[in-house]
Specification:
Blueprint (H helix, E strand, L loop, with lengths): L1 H20 L4 H23 L7 H25 L4 H5 L6 H28 L3 H9 L5 H35 L1 H14 L4 H21 L2 H22 L11 H29 L1
Length: 280
């Protein structure tokens, strides 16, 4: 009986605190995310199916429109419930210095992930999935336009608004920093369904979460996510053209990139910490 009263009091305190902040509770956040993702998933499956017999360029265009519509739905649901969009999604502005440091931080993420890739490839060999990825690389100008618009302009906005904006903010209000960063990062890495990359995606997701925590702005993680996708797209187009037969772990291929990347990340977060204090 006492325990149920305590739980009710905790729920009441959470509700009062989040109403004061004018942001969704964890339950409200989950409902909004499920609605947005559910609508996006249904439309995406319909678009990719053979029901409407769309040619591939039209399917690519439709997928962009569907993703943009999902972004709109996030704002629509928040506005309908009369939540603060800026607070709920952490849409606080960032200055030019923070933007530049964010770009530097992305180089650290990319270096660490490049160092992790040989290790992960040997732990979780996924030649079939990698071949599928190679086969899906853009070959025509229209395909390049689609992949650039999708991976660099549209997808990072949707993913960061959901995972580092809406989810991280609501979870942080109730459960604190660790849970609010790790839960979205784990979910984000799992949904990519690519075993060889899950751990490296988890790593970058945690960094994005820390970036939002330091800057109090999802703009920073959107910039970081988009810039990382751009670097990865350029790198893979230039150097990753065929299925690797043997990837060896060495000082040059793994240890050095990881150490250099960690160094860059430490320097970047030190500066962001000072900038956050200065801003506050």
């Amino acid at each position: 009986m006492t325990k149920s009263i305590d739980n009710a009091q905790d729920a009441a305190i959470e509700s009062i605190g989040q109403k004061r902040e004018n942001i969704p509770s964890v339950t409200g956040m989950i409902a909004a995310v499920l609605k947005v993702v559910g609508v996006w998933l249904i439309l995406f499956i319909l678009n990719r199916s053979n029901i409407f017999h769309f040619p591939q360029p039209i399917k690519n265009l439709n997928s962009l429109v569907i993703t943009i519509f999902a972004i709109y739905l996030i704002f629509f649901f928040l506005k309908k419930k009369k939540y603060s969009i800026t607070k709920s999604l952490q849409l606080n502005p960032v200055n030019m210095k923070i933007m530049l440091v964010t770009l530097l931080l992305v180089l650290g993420i990319f270096a660490v992930r490049q160092g992790l890739n040989p290790i992960l490839y040997n732990l979780f060999p996924s030649k079939e999935l990698i071949q599928i990825y190679l086969d899906s690389k853009p070959k025509t100008m229209l395909e390049w336009v689609h992949i650039i618009a999708s991976a660099i302009l549209v997808a990072p906005v949707l993913e960061e608004l959901i995972f580092r904006g809406l989810m991280q903010k609501s979870l942080n209000e109730k459960y604190g920093l660790l849970i609010s960063i790790m839960v979205p990062a784990i979910i984000f890495s799992i949904i990519h369904i690519f075993p060889v990359a899950i751990l490296s995606i988890l790593f970058s997701s945690v960094i994005y979460g820390l970036l939002v925590y330091k800057t109090q702005s999802v703009h920073a993680s959107i910039i970081a996510h988009a810039f990382h996708n751009l670097i990865a797209l350029i790198y893979n187009s230039l150097f990753f053209k065929e299925l690797p037969t043997d990837i060896k772990i060495s000082l040059f291929s793994s240890v050095f990139p990881i150490l250099i990347g960690i160094g860059i990340l430490i320097i970047s977060f030190r500066y962001l910490g000072k900038s956050a204090k200065h801003i506050s």
